[in-house]
Amino acid sequence: MTEACHIHGGSGYMQDTEINRLFRANKLLEIGAGTSEVRKIIIAEELLRA
User: Fold this and answer.
1) What is the reported pTM?
2) What is the spatial distance between Cα 7 and Cα 15, in angstroms, rounded to a whole number?
3) Cβ distance 5 to 23 under 8 Å?
4) What distance in Å separates the CA atoms of residue 44 and residue 40, rounded to the nearest whole number?
5) What is the pLDDT of residue 48?
6) Is the pLDDT confidence value at 50 over 70?
7) What residues make up the domain containing 35?
8) Which string of DSSP letters, residue by residue, matches 1-50?
9) pLDDT digits 0-9 by tens, 11-46
10) Which residue stretches, if any, does this entry annotate as coiled coil (predicted)?
11) Would residue 9 be called left, alpha or beta, if left means φ above 0 and alpha means ψ between -120 and 50 degrees?
12) How many independent structural domains does the chain possess?
């Protein structure tokens, strides 16, 4: 997705463009997926302690 912003140049980073909206949505999904993975690890560790 970063490559798409680079291809579009400055317009890829402007707030009004579709590519910028998709780029931000993609970043949010990456962050959200990471936090759920961390939660799974914490839960697994707690279950293994019991």
Assistant:
1) 0.48
2) 16
3) yes
4) 6
5) 92
6) no
7) 2-49
8) -HHHHHHHGGGGGSTTSHHHHHHHHHHHHHHHHHHHHHHHHHHHHHHHH-
9) 766 778 887 888 878 777 777 767 778 888 888 999
10) none
11) left
12) 1
